[in-house]
Amino acid sequence: MEDILAVFYKYRTDKNVFIGHSYGTGLSICALSKIIDNGDISSVVGVILLGSSYSSLRTIPIWYLPNFILDYIRPYMGKAFTNLGYHPSTPETIKSVESTAGEQNQTYALFSPFDN
User: Which of 10, 7, 23, 5 is CA-nearest to residue 111?
Assistant: First the structure.
């Protein structure tokens, strides 16, 4: 969370918009809560949350697994995401391109937002 706040405070202007997607929605809400607590919310003029599913990220047990296990179960997680994340009529070619792009993500990156 501190990294998100550091970026906000370094680059903020008079009018800022927070944008979050997927788990980023929860991170945005947490960051905004801290910005409110600091009394700096006046420069935030908007919030856009896409694919929102806010829950406490730390209550999801899978994020406590070591990276090598996350790498091992990645195909199963990817299949579950594909089943839930796409409309049934989405062409397989689009799913394939998105899946290939997602395989480039490193699992260690999943942990950085959860550090306090």
Answer: 23
Tens-place pLDDT, residues 96-109: 887 777 676 665 55
The CA distance from 89 to 42, in Å, is: 43
Q: What is the pLDDT of residue 5?
A: 92
The residues with which 27 forms a beta bridge, in sequence order, are none
Whether the CA torsion 7, 11, 13, 17 is positive or negative: it is: negative
**Integer Cα distance of 15 and 4 in angstroms:** 17
**C-beta separation of 84 from 78 below 8 A:** no
Q: Is 11 helix (H, G, I), strand (E, B) or coil?
A: helix
- What are 99's two structure tokens? 């899946």
104 token code pair:
């480039």
DSSP secondary structure letters along 65-111: S-HHHHHHHHHHHHHHHHHHHS-TTS-HHHHHHHHHHHTTS-GGGGT
